[in-house]
Amino acid sequence: MKTAFYIVNALRFIAEVMTLIILITYGLRFAFPLNVLIGLLLPACLLVIWGLFVSPKAKVVLSMLLKCFIEIVIFTAAYLIFHHFSHTQLPILYLCYAIITSICSKIIDRLLESN
Fold it and tell me: What is the pLDDT of residue 18?
């Protein structure tokens, strides 16, 4: 069970890194003064929100439902941004991957808590 926990959390971390890459790529598409500002501030805001509310050692303890809601909002916003500049099937694949890994992570966490 511990092996599954590590695998699922590694896959979830990949989804989080992909979200940061999407936000950085989106921010760097603007003209010069805005690209640096948006390309750095948007991912920084995401990291602050993730670290405060969603991470396993979050400073603000929220219910599982509220954490899931915040994750879905973040992943959906990244999907919409990704869909805006890439009209292929990749944004749908990203969103499915991110939500499935998030759900699997919550299930594994609950199973390990009950043992």
Answer: 94
* Global pTM exceeds 0.70: yes
15-41 burial string, b = 16+ CB within 10 Å, else e?
Answer: bbebbbebbeebbeeeeeeeeeebbee
Tokens describing residue 63: 């219910």
In angstroms, the Cα distances linking 2 to 8, 10, 62, 106, 108 are 10, 12, 24, 14, 9
Residue with tokens 């890194």: 17
| Regions of the chain where pLDDT drops below 50 | none
Question: Look-up: residue for tokens 């043992």?
Answer: 115
- Which amino acid makes up residue 48? V
Q: Alpha-carbon distance 113 to 88, whole Å? A: 39
Token reading at 72 = 């879905």
The Cα–Cα gap between 47 and 39 comes to 13
Q: CA 94 to CA 100: how far, in whole Å?
A: 10
How many H-runs (helices) and E-runs (strands) does the chain carry?
4, 0
